[in-house]
Write a structure and sequence with these properties.
The complex is a heterodimer of chains A (about 625) and B (about 140). Chain A is an alpha+beta fold. Chain A folds into 4 domains: about 160 residues, no CATH class; about 180 residues, Four Helix Bundle (Hemerythrin (Met), subunit A) (Up-down Bundle), CATH 1.20.120; about 100 residues, no CATH class; about 100 residues. Chain A is built from 18 helices and 11 strands. In chain A, the strands form 2 sheets. In chain A, strands 3, 4, 5, 6, 7 and 8 form a 6-stranded antiparallel sheet that branches. In chain A, strands 2-11-10-9 form a 4-stranded antiparallel sheet, with helices on one face. In chain A, β10 and β11 form a beta hairpin. In chain A, α6 runs antiparallel to α12, α10 packs antiparallel against α11 and α15 packs across α16. The longest helix of chain A has about 30 residues. The radius of gyration of chain A is 26 Å and the shape is globular. Chain B is of the alpha+beta class. Helix content of chain B is about 30%, strand content about 30%. Chain B is elongated and about 70 Å long. Chain B is built from 3 helices and 7 strands; from the N terminus they run αβαββββββα. In chain B, about 35% of the residues are buried. Classes of the chains: A alpha+beta (about 625), B alpha+beta (about 140). Chains A and B meet through α13, β1, α14, β2 and β8 of A and α1 and β1 of B. β1 of chain A pairs antiparallel with β1 of chain B, so a sheet runs across the interface.
Amino acid sequence: MIAEAGLALLWLAAALSLLQLVLGWAALRPSGEAMLRAVRPVAVAQGILAGLAFACLIWLFLRTDLSVKLVAANSHSAKPWLYKFAGAWGNHEGSMLLWVTVLAMAGAAVALFERRLRQDTLIATLAAQAAIGLGFYAFLLFASNPFTRLTPVPVEGNGLNPLLQDPGLAFHPPTLYFGYVGISIAFSFAVGALITRDVGPAFARAMRPWVLIAWIFLTLGITAGSYWAYYELGWGGWWFWDPVENASLMPWLAATALLHSVTVLATRGGLRAWTIMLAVVAFSMSMIGTFLVRSGILTSVHAFAVDPLRGAFILVLLGFYIGGALLLFGLRVRHVKEGTAFEIVSREAALVINNLLLSVILGLVFIGTLYPLVTQALGQEISVGPPYFNAVAGPVALVLVAFMAMGPMLRWRRDELKALAGRIAVPVLLSAAALLALVILAPPMNWLPLLGLAMAPGVAAASVAPLWRRNLRRTPFFIWGMVIAHLGIAVTLAGMASESAFTKETLVAARPGQSVAAGPFRVLFQGVTPVVGQNWTAIEATLVARRGEGAPVALRPQARLFSSPPTPTSEAAISTWWDGQLYIAIGEEDEQGRWQLRLWWKPFVTLIWLGGGLIALGGLLALIGRLRRERRAPA
Amino acid sequence: MKRKNQRLVLLLLAIGAVLGAVLLGMSAMRSQASFFYAPGDVAAKGLPLDRAVRIGGMVKQGSIRRHGDGVTIDFLVGDQTPNTIRVVFRGLTPELFRENSGMIAEGRFRADGIFVASEILAKHDENYMPPELTRRGLHKTETVH
């Protein structure tokens, strides 16, 4: 019954999204004022129904109802409850249902809370959101139904991919989707404003908090995904330039650019058409990412099912939505007013450069991600990996970070180069000193991490500069937000560069009782013991690490064998210190009774994710600041 | 700057940036993209010595040899042609790496034809197979229903 109820709720939600679209369209016609009031409640009801349908799926997974095909194919009764719960989205259909649910709930949130947008623009926005929803409801109902029954009912389910059986599954996908799909609001706002010709500072002020919310979640989701891959895969890497990672990075780059251009539009009335374009591009990247990940053309832990029909379906949907939005943009862009002009040396100009560089990185990542698919269609197998992405994105990112450091020190509209030179003197001197110290004292390293390490302190100093001579108590929250987010970039940069430059790796085959060096540690391999979990067995190694004369720390990496499906996985053991992480993975035993051990000492690697957290925190502070200011002075 | 000109300048800048990105991307692609070689390709096209490549195929039964250091192995990779590639790898192999199973490796060929793998790509799950292999009929993808 639950499955049928879920399916019925989904159909109802789809019907409401059609109603929302039609009502919105009718309300915008000259005679349609009577419909105006109906659109908001319909949008809220649609969000609630989609949420209930998703709750039905979670319930089915928690009960391990094997008469539902999706549960039987992806769950198992002997799984810990957390993975039954989170396993609801650890498969193609479930993750698409989560996708659509977030889309519907985002629309409902706009209907409930958006008070400042002009009413006709709001209605057009909700209609646009419903139009997107309609296509993806169709995709769910016709090509990815999560509630299909299965007869005969199997005795036991197939279980969940063990790599996904980690607390990260409960956090990373929903967080990422809130950002990834939440950015659809920016797209709908842009479409709405184009329809009602309402592109201006007031519109931008209304859009900004929504972009911020989506961007915060996207930042958190990417950061969490990176840390999860780092400890779960056991390869010691934190970013692999996997197409799936790129699929989340591309909307983030576009949303970051949008966040800055929308500020120019809100405060200075500039960059109008560009902001609208970025809003369209950001969610377009999300849809392209969905296509890459869900169509089965990629091989990845994220690609669940290979079904050409699904790929074609999403391709048609995204072609329709992106093409439609671009067409509307082309038709209406001449009605978008020219923005306020500014000088070459000004805050606006720095933000334009920020936007251009973010777009360049986005373009480079886009080419690298999609080019192999194009050549593959032409019959040539190539793969584009970290060598390409690091070589092209790294240098551009460093230039971008340099401009990011300068931007907040510039005045709006016009400024003097001389004044700027005075303000950046301290950060530049700091970076120069760091560069000198690194070249003299540190072992030789690649120029990219070298520059990254040298720039980090200067960028950090420049980031906190806006607080200089301010009364910290009376500094508005959104200034704090900017400062913390930019500081987060500097912290992440330091972590990435340090990991890349100073990581020490040791690969040995060791007998129990043998001692191994790993960076500043002496690690004693004591031996292995078998251990048993709820749905796995494992060989667990015990290693005791000592740093100089410090207290010993025990690390226990495992080689696990999951029972359903029967899959071996490696669980790395990580010991976190103030200045880095000791990371140990265990391999196989050889004929002589030696065990393969891989040990890494990664100095300051934790800064990567700490910085990611700071960036998201900065976003949150900015959001609170904007909302508080609004409450005080209603627009 | 005049208002009229400003939009034009911004537009030109944007186009310039995108063009620059495309040119930079394509030129980097030429030197950094790695091509896929199955054992049959090596015989047909010759050894690619100038760049990193990917190879893939089935690990031959009984071909995995462990070296004395305990962390280096070598093995033969074959496809449906009679050709094979000998691969040397130092590191921990992925959990699902075994004889008679598909694999993909990244690395470089030495002049003597031995492939030095820098990385052996893990199959994330027993249901997955690198598409390069399935498309060439080197391995059948099994799906669980």
